[in-house]
Amino acid sequence: MTSISLWKRQLTYWKENYDSFQYRKHIITHLQKDMRIDSYCFSIVDPQTLCSLGAVTDEVINQLHGKIIALEQHPNTIDAYHDLWQHNNYFQRLSDTKIEDNYRYQRLLRLSGYTDEIRMCLPCGAENYGYLTLFRTEGYFTNYEAQYLVALQKDIAQHLKDYYYVVPTTQSGVYGNGCLIMNQVLKVTSGNEEGLSFMYYLQQQEGTLHLPKLLQTLYMKCHKEQATISLLTPIKDLGYFKVTATVVATKNTEIIILIQAATNEMITAHLMQAYQLTERESDIAVLLIQGKATKDIASQLSLSPHTVQDYLKQVFKKAQVHSRTELSWKLCGGIP
Predict the structure, then answer these.
(1) HTH luxR-type domain spans which residues (predicted)?
(2) Helix runs in 18-118, H state only
């Protein structure tokens, strides 16, 4: 097996030279050189909703993905990712459980020829940024292989967080008012030109004709909770988008998906969270973006100018910038 130290150097290199999809693809390709992996699903997720924003999968899992997502929401599933996350169980090996009692295994995995599975959450700090699922059709994953994966968990999670909060170089309004309607069998029944173009673009990014993973998971979560689900996501070469799923009151349980190009305000709030600014630091950053001078910020927030400067030093440090102009540019996502 490749040494962990070499693996970590490779992870850093891939992070610096490839986009999120290619990064995850490289990880899978190199893991397959170190251990037997017959199928896989590697998702980056929205930390607020835990919805997949896109996944690297093999063709077999692509075919099964709708069923996999449906079972994630089933009440009899005891090892769904959201349950693992809530119980701080970030690594689960199927062969460590009572397989005969495992609902997912009996309903899908066994019938699909799988004998073992590894599920790994990818937490960074208090939030989760991805799921790595590996499948085997013969035998079981060994303890050594499990420990090997856990040793890489922290580095991969940090990189997925960095990808999630990437600052786009452009912001496109091409898909700014998209709309899609999906039925209970995960089929898009209608949509406007912008919505369909958005879906086709995601399919192109995933290299598949199947429904994009983002839309699959949004539908399932919205349907299960019978509530509106909304998330902000960066899309490669397009910028940030707000995607919202809402239940339509019909007998066929349809879901309407709305796609909106994110406003500067949405992006700024998103990035301030990424840089872990406190409420007071965020207040000061917003006023700075508005062009307020230090004395004006101090007056508006009932602080001394010296205190404002101290807060700004912390903001600069967290955002890794050295000037007000650079901070304003970065917190607006690089969008004028």
Answers:
(1) 270-335
(2) 20-34, 59-72, 81-86, 103-104
User: ∠158-159-162 over CA atoms, to 5°?
Assistant: 90
**Could you tell me the two tokens for 264?**
């500067």
| C-alpha–C-alpha distance, residues 259 and 179, integer Å | 6
Q: Which domains does the chain have, with CATH numbers?
A: 4-164 (3.30.450.80), 177-262 (3.30.450.20), 274-331 (1.10.10.10)
Region 160-183: mean pLDDT is 77
What pLDDT sits at residue 336?
Answer: 43
Question: Residue 308: which H helix or E strand, with range?
Answer: helix 305-319
DSSP string, 128-176: EEEEEEEEESSS---HHHHHHHHHHHHHHHHHHHHHHT---S----TTT
pLDDT one-digit tens code per residue, 52-108? 998 999 999 999 988 898 888 888 888 889 899 989 999 999 999 888 888 999 999
Helices marked H in 58-142? 59-72, 81-86, 103-104
| Spatial contact of 15 and 6, defined as CB atoms under 8 Å apart | no
Q: Which residue has the tokens 């073992």?
A: 116
CB 322 within 8 A of CB 316: yes
Write down the pTM of the prediction.
0.84
Burial class (CB within 10 angstroms; exposed 0-12, middle 13-18, buried 19+) of 110: middle
Cα R_g (the chain), whole angstroms? 22
